[in-house]
Design brief:
Elements lengths: L1 H17 L3 E6 L13 E5 L7 H23 L12 H11 L6 H20 L1 H17 L1 E3 H7 L9
Antiparallel strand pairs: 1-2, 1-3
Protein name: ATP-dependent zinc metalloprotease FtsH
Organism: Thalassoglobus polymorphus
GO molecular function, one term: ATP binding
């Protein structure tokens, strides 16, 4: 189970970094004293003013879906992100951010499904999956990764999420 969590959290972190966010840390051993029970945690910072409103919410949607999509790729299970109980917080986060882009619930669902498929295709590319897997391997070895370690891990990656 720890390996699945590592890939899930690495999916959030990799997606955030690829989209220009700063990832301060990620963990598969989070503190449970400051909120709901969870098995992993990622601390992400977006630079205000660098993106227009639409880009900002699109990026947040993709990061929210990054964990579930990475987990789907890792396990080979093609689940819908809305139906897996462990992904409830991620789905709610994606749903709320998508609400800023799509007010109709039907259009929002379609939008999120399209983004999940698009992200699955992007993260599955060899160069992206290799980088994400390296993050997961380091996370399994250390349980917590800080910003400098993440940046060092990805120093050879070209930074493009095509």
């Amino acid at each position: 189970m720890e390996d699945i969590t590592a890939y899930h959290e690495s999916g959030h972190a990799f997606t955030a970094m690829a989209l220009g966010a700063i990832v301060h840390s990620l963990s598969i051993d989070p503190d449970w004293d400051d909120g709901p029970e969870r098995y992993g945690d990622v601390e992400i910072e977006w630079q205000r003013g660098e993106y227009n409103r639409k880009e900002f919410f699109e990026k947040r949607v993709l990061v929210a879906l990054g964990g579930p999509v990475a987990e789907m790729i890792y396990t080979g299970d093609p689940f819908h992100p809305a139906i897996v109980p462990e992904w409830k917080v991620d789905w709610e986060n994606a749903w709320q951010n998508a609400a800023q882009l799509q007010t109709s619930k039907q259009k929002r669902m379609t939008y999120l499904e399209q983004k999940s498929i698009e992200l699955h295709r992007i993260l599955s590319r060899t160069e992206n999956w290799s980088a994400l897997a390296v993050i997961a391997d380091h996370l399994l070895a250390h349980e917590i990764l800080e910003r400098e370690h993440l940046e060092d891990i990805l120093s050879d990656w070209d930074g493009a999420m095509r």
